[in-house]
Amino acid sequence: MGKSYSYVRVSTQHQNEDRQLLAMLEAGVEEKNIYIDKQSGKDFNRPMYRKLLRNLEEGDILYVKSIDRLGRNYEEILEQWRILTKEKKVDIVILDMSLLDTRKGKDLLGTLIADLVLALLSYVSENERKTLKERQMEGIEAARRRGVKFGRPEKKAPDFNSTYNKWMSKEITADEAARMCGLKTGAFYYRARKRKANISK
């Protein structure tokens, strides 16, 4: 009988892993055998997952809350599944999907069903992420069209017009003008170009 391990991943340092941890403890995994990464799926820099892989031995059981914790996309999830089941020869239990439990149906039919379900769920999971990203981009674009501005608000420079006029008449240098406005020189030049363009319209 092998040991029981679990892998938990949350996408940011601010997300709470308690829900996944509770599920692992209820599954009977000892706290010392729970490996947690707080990393974006985009970066996929997962030091604890790599450590877990090194510790897993043939016959061990790995519990994961949901299939998307294993990878950032369809290909990655399938590759990690292959490494775990074929190379490391461990069993995987996906708690959110009872069909994905390699302890059941060790015959050819059971393995085939698990592989088909895995491929389908991985594909659906990736498509959901893509759809969410597309909706976010559409929402940002719609907000821009409504006049919503993103990013830092432009810093207000005190008495920019008079300083600009002094600079244009060569009473002061650009560095001095920028300093008087509380701006960096590059930012002053940017404002100056915008003002000149507006005047010439």
Assembly category: single chain
Tell me, what is the CATH class of the largest domain? Answer: Alpha Beta
Shape: elongated
The gyration radius over C-alpha positions equals 28 Å
The tally of helices reads 7
Helix- and strand-based class?
Answer: alpha/beta
Report the portion of residues in β strands: 5-15%
Number of strands: 4
**What's the rounded overall pLDDT mean?**
80
Q: Spell out the helices and strands N to C.
A: EHEHEHEHHHH
Note the gap between the termini.
Answer: 80 Å
Low-confidence stretches: none
Domain count: the total is 2
How does the major sheet shape up?
4 strands, parallel
What descriptors fit this protein?
four-stranded parallel β-sheet; 10% strand; Rossmann fold; alpha/beta; 201 residues; single chain
Tell me the layout of helices and strands.
Elements: E1 4-10, H1 18-26, E2 34-38, H2 47-55, E3 61-64, H3 74-87, E4 91-94, H4 108-145, H5 160-168, H6 174-181, H7 185-200
Parallel strand pairs: 1-2, 1-3, 3-4
